[in-house]
Structures are given as structure tokens and as C-alpha cells.
Design brief:
Layout lengths: L17 E6 L23 H14 L4 E5 L6 H6 L2 E6 L17 E3 L2 H5 L4 H10 L4
């Protein structure tokens, strides 16, 4: 960071990390009781388990992503303000998450089996497809 201007500059060849949020609860809607919902397919898998598995794979492949568990009650506008580049939605949220203008091609909806098996390969492939060519 430049002490005179307060502006942070990146060294050549260093890329900024992109931010991913893992959304695991439906968007609150008037009339729906706001109990926590970890999805109907959770079983022994928690959102934290999936985030940890995906973080391990992101780190192992040295991908420029930072993955965070959503704490905004599925507020797409707030996530966009926080700099979300990609949203990953837990199974069962495809029609229960209101994207409020968030780009549809940057939302990854998980299938049940990869989620409960902690199989992150399909997510990694989709994330890599969003990266610019190196």
C-alpha cells in the first residue's frame, strides 16, 4: 500500500482473489416461518462440511478464490455489495433463492449427490470455466 495515497497496488503477475459465497438457506419470503433450513438433503453433511471440502480443493489447486459461508440470510443484493463474484447454492434452493439481479451464469446450483458425498469436482470445473484464460 502506498503510504502517501492510501492506494493498494498489485505487483505484476499477482491476481486479486475472487469471492464465492455458499448460500444454504432460502431467501426469506413474507409468510414463510424463518427457521434455519439446512436443506432437506443435509443428513450428516452441514454447510460447513461442504465449504471446508471445497476450500481444501481450491487451496490444493491454487485457484484465486476465497470461499465464505453466507451470513446474510440469502440476500443477493447484500452479497453483491460485499463483492461476491460467484454464489454456490445448496441443493433445494434452485427455486427458493431470489437472485435480485445477480448474474444467473455466476450462480452454481448444487445437485444432491455431489453435496452429500462432498464431491467438489463439478464445482471446481464450473469455477475454472469462469476464470479468464491464463
Amino acid at each position: 500500500m502506498n503510504s502517501e495515497t492510501g492506494v493498494s497496488r498489485l505487483e505484476p503477475g499477482i491476481t486479486m482473489e475472487k469471492h464465492i459465497y455458499f448460500v444454504f438457506q432460502p431467501t426469506p419470503i413474507l409468510g414463510r416461518f424463518p427457521l434455519p433450513d439446512n436443506g432437506i438433503y443435509s443428513g450428516h453433511v452441514t454447510p460447513e462440511n461442504f465449504v471446508n471440502a471445497l476450500n481444501r480443493e481450491i487451496n490444493a489447486r491454487h485457484l484465486p478464490w476465497t470461499l465464505t459461508l453466507d451470513n446474510t440470510e440469502s440476500d443477493a443484493e447484500e452479497l453483491q455489495k460485499r463483492g461476491a463474484d460467484v454464489l454456490i447454492c445448496a441443493p433445494g434452493l434452485k427455486y427458493r433463492f431470489i437472485r435480485n439481479g445477480f448474474p444467473k451464469h455466476k450462480i452454481i446450483h448444487l445437485e444432491v449427490f455431489p453435496y452429500v458425498a462432498l464431491d467438489v469436482d463439478s464445482v471446481i470445473q464450473k469455477l475454472q470455466a469462469l476464470l479468464p484464460e491464463r
